[in-house]
Design brief:
alpha/beta; 44% helix; 10 helices; 5-stranded parallel beta sheet; single chain
């Protein structure tokens, strides 16, 4: 029996669209590709998510590959993308609050940097979460088995009682290897509701998706 629902963050609770972030920041079109590649697509970004390097070290390393005019935007995007670009996934807050009202434990398991506490209260349904595991705090990344084991250990959860939702199949597959049930989220709330119902979670089905 499922007793706890575990959510990823990017493209599950909030939209994660670096191209939109650059547009929202007013970055000229000719500068967007270098920033996408050297900031969001960089090894340093992954290292920051894993808590392997301090933010300033990561930013300095990114900037060595960028022209000076892009150093400021690289820094702002790394440290403050969430200030103007945090957009909730539509319908997710309602689902989370419904699940909480049904008595389910609600948890976060996210590859994210150490600054997540600065904006967590802007996450849909943040008031419903019973706990969170953030990769940078534990120096682990999904789909490493240890990060799922950390979630289970820290909150005394049984894997067979957990349902994990992530936008990446590799992370859901990692959760299943750790004994959790789960589903890949494609931005389709009605589909997710059907998958939860199929797992024994009695949430409302919602409207059928096309």
């Amino acid at each position: 029996m499922i007793r706890s629902i575990v959510f990823d963050m990017g493209n599950v609770l909030i939209h994660w669209r670096p191209e939109f972030f650059l547009e929202r920041e007013g970055i000229p079109e000719e500068d967007r590709l270098p920033l996408l590649r050297e900031v969001f697509g960089s090894v340093e970004w992954a290292q920051l998510d894993r808590g392997a390097i301090p933010p300033e070290e990561g930013i300095a390393s990114m900037c060595r590959r960028l022209p000076p005019r892009l150093h400021g935007p690289a820094r702002e995007l790394t440290l403050g993308w969430w200030k103007r670009c945090l957009l909730p996934v539509e319908g997710m807050a309602d689902l989370i609050r419904e699940l909480k009202g049904l008595g389910y434990g609600i948890y976060l398991l996210s590859n994210a940097k150490i600054d997540l506490p600065l904006y967590f209260d802007r996450i849909p349904g943040s008031e419903c979460f019973d706990g969170r595991i953030v990769s940078a705090d534990w120096k682990l990344l999904k789909p490493q088995p240890e990060i799922y084991e950390t979630l289970l250990r820290e909150f005394r959860l049984k894997p067979e009682e957990c349902f994990f939702i992530d936008d990446l199949s590799v992370n859901v597959e990692g959760a299943r290897r750790a004994g959790l049930d789960g589903a890949v989220f494609f931005g389709d709330i009605p589909r997710l509701r059907r998958e939860l119902i199929a797992a024994g979670v009695p949430c409302a089905p919602g409207e059928a998706s096309l």
